[in-house]
Specification:
mainly alpha; two-stranded antiparallel sheet
Length: about 210
C-alpha cells in the first residue's frame, strides 16, 4: 500500500470514530491528568464492561460481545457482496482485521474499502456494528498506544507521535501531519518497526495509529 493510501485509510477510520462516539475510544466521563511518571491518566473513567453502579456485568459483557461479532459479520457479508468477496471475517473478539483489510485495499477498485465501500454502500452496517462495541478501558487503551508509539520510535521511526487524552477520549498518535506525511510507511525501517511493535497494541487498536 502506498503511504498516501494508508494515510487515507487511517483518516477514514478516525473520521468514523469521531462521527460515532461509540466507536471512539471513550469513557462515559472524565478528563485527563498526568501521573508522576509523565503518563496521562483518565479521571474517574469507568472500568471496561462494568456498569457505573458497580454491579456484576459479566453476563451483559458476554452478550454484548456476541452481538458485536454478529453485527460485524453482517457488515462483512455486505462488503463481500458489494465490494470484495475476499473481505476478511472479524476476529473472534469481533474486531475487524485491519492488517488484512489494508492489504485488500491495494486491489484496483478497493480504494474506498475502509469507508464502507464505494458510495458508502456498507457504511450503515459498519456504524451499526460500532454502536455494539463492548465498553473498554480508556486508560489501558491510551497506555497501549503510548507503548506502541515509544516502541516505534525506539525502532527508528523518530517522528512517530504519542497518542493524546482529550476529555476522556484517546486521540491516536502516529503522523502529526498526515496531509504532508513525515513518516514514510513504505520505508523498510517503518515496516520492520511495525512488525516489531504490533504486540504493544491491544486487540481492536491495530490500524488506529
Amino acid at each position: 500500500m502506498t503511504q498516501q493510501t494508508s494515510s487515507r485509510s487511517r483518516a477514514a477510520r478516525l473520521a468514523l470514530m469521531i462521527a460515532v462516539p461509540a466507536l471512539f475510544l471513550t469513557s462515559a466521563c472524565g478528563g485527563a491528568e498526568s501521573s508522576d511518571d509523565g503518563v496521562a491518566s483518565v479521571v474517574d473513567a469507568p472500568s471496561a464492561g462494568k456498569p457505573k453502579d458497580g454491579s456484576d456485568a459479566a453476563g451483559g459483557a458476554a452478550q454484548g460481545k456476541s452481538a458485536f461479532y454478529d453485527a460485524q459479520m453482517k457488515y462483512v457479508q455486505c462488503m463481500r457482496k458489494n465490494v470484495d468477496k475476499d473481505f476478511p471475517a472479524p476476529k473472534l473478539s469481533g474486531y475487524l482485521d485491519w492488517s488484512k483489510i489494508d492489504q485488500l485495499q491495494q486491489k484496483p477498485g478497493n480504494e474506498e474499502i475502509s469507508k464502507g465501500g464505494k458510495g458508502g454502500v456498507c457504511t450503515k452496517d459498519m456504524l451499526d456494528a460500532s454502536k455494539l462495541e463492548p465498553r473498554r478501558d480508556t486508560q489501558k487503551e491510551y497506555e497501549s498506544m503510548l507503548a506502541h508509539a515509544k516502541c516505534m520510535r525506539s525502532h527508528g521511526v523518530s517522528k512517530f507521535t504519542n497518542p493524546q487524552l482529550q476529555d476522556g477520549n484517546v486521540i491516536p498518535g502516529g503522523d502529526s501531519h498526515p496531509s504532508s506525511p513525515g513518516v514514510s510507511q513504505d520505508s523498510p525501517t517503518y515496516k520492520q518497526a511495525r512488525q516489531a511493535c504490533k504486540g504493544k497494541l491491544l486487540d481492536g487498536l491495530d490500524g488506529m495509529q
